[in-house]
Amino acid sequence: MPKLVRAAVLTNYLEVTQYLGFNPRDVLAGVGLSKAKLQAPEHRIPIDAAVRLLEDSAVASGCQSFGLSMAESRQLSDFGVVSLLLSHQRTLRDTLQVLVHYRHLMNDSLALFIEEAGKMVIIREEVVTESPMPCRQANELAIGVMFRLCAALLGAHWQPYSVNFTHQPPDNLQLHRRLFGCKLEFGSEFNGIVCPNASLDMTNPHADPAMARYAQSYLDSLLNHEGPSMLFEVRKAIYLLLPMGRATIEQIAQTQGMNVRTLQRRLKDDGCAFNDLINDVRRDLVLRYLENPNYSLGRIADMLGYSMASSFTRWFITQFGMPPAAWRSAQKQPKAPSEPSTLPAPTEP
Q1: Mean pLDDT lowest among 108-112, 302-306, 333-337
Q2: Of 98, 125, 232, 304, which one has the fewest beta carbons inside 10 Å?
């Protein structure tokens, strides 16, 4: 069964297409969606279809910042039933913890990791799909929504250092500069926001503890007691920690609140091994990294957890049947209309 998310993840999609003078009928049909499905926020749709819709719409409309255009007009209320609890959290730190805990009621495909480093905090975000595919628009949408949430809670006190993207900048940065108003870093090693550590503990003047308790009680009654998919949750954690060099089984088990033996047992029950998940994520991430001309093969190897570029090259040949340098060179050649521009299917080891 495909991984599903609320149609609310595509809030403002139709408004943006109308503003751009773009008829989305064909791209919607191409991913199996319709206007009617998008107009029902609680309707569940496949995450892969939502992400592909954003990418296809950016190409078809000629708007390189399609996802960010959707984020620009997002409101706190667009978080659905969780919005009441978010608006009454005492600090931004508490708000982020709520986002992590109740993510299954909002966008279960979003991987979120808060890294504190001295006086800085990195809010890492990554949209994780079931099948390998570009996620530029979905990641910009997620980061834009997070940025607006923080600004709504902290007002003028929200002054991040930078907003970071792993992809290259669009031809026109006007929207990015208007929405973020801080340093923009493209070709970065992560997607997310860097802000002062003090921002996490700034008090929300509108917080009401009584309302927060009421909202939390209501949300707890909505949670699926069966819990999220273990495999997908581990996969999301690997997405975030692998480029940081921290995707060890010990670290991943810690993010899931269990010890290594328990994690191994539960993965085995699902017919999977930890190394298989690491390999799956590497195959997904290498597509994004190789398409970034600023990433050297040595840097890509390091971000995928290889200490030596030669080990990375051997792995890539095993998975895709050619060296990474050859694949990258091939992508620079003009393509025939029917010629695919994605990685070949993995070969059997």
Answers
A1: 333-337
A2: 232
